[in-house]
Design brief:
The protein is of the alpha+beta class. The protein has three helices and nine strands; from the N terminus they run ααβββββββββα. The protein has an eight-stranded antiparallel barrel. β1 and β2 form a beta hairpin. The N terminus and C terminus are likely disordered.
Amino acid sequence: MNRWARWLAALVLAVPAAMPTQAAEPEKSQAPTVTDTASLAGHYYLEGIMETGSELLLRDDGRFQWYFTYGALDLAAEGRWQREGATVVLRPDVFKAPPQYPETEFKRMQLRIDGKHLVPAWPWEDGAERGRYMLEWCVSNESVEREHVQ
């Protein structure tokens, strides 16, 4: 593993490990779970990785757009997605990364379907799962529920 890959892996691994784990909360919303390919399409936001921004758009036509930002590192991809059993697989046609970090490019990314969430297995971390992509509908409704509870 080269220096950049070790640094990125150590950084992404260290931040969540330093955070306390949260107990699972019972499901509060009536959001549909992701059970078929049509219901997978939507706009997802990454949660659970500090100081990292990422969004994933899965379109009905099998195309996707993705971006990932951590500090000065900006990655973007677009291509095709498909469901494979209990996972969603992204296969980029176009991948944009800084030229000095070619090792961040991936040919395939797998996301495990977990109810209404997608849990990414990061290609540059040998498939380690970190964070989760939450469907936009779920994110907005969960924040509304939190406001009503307070």
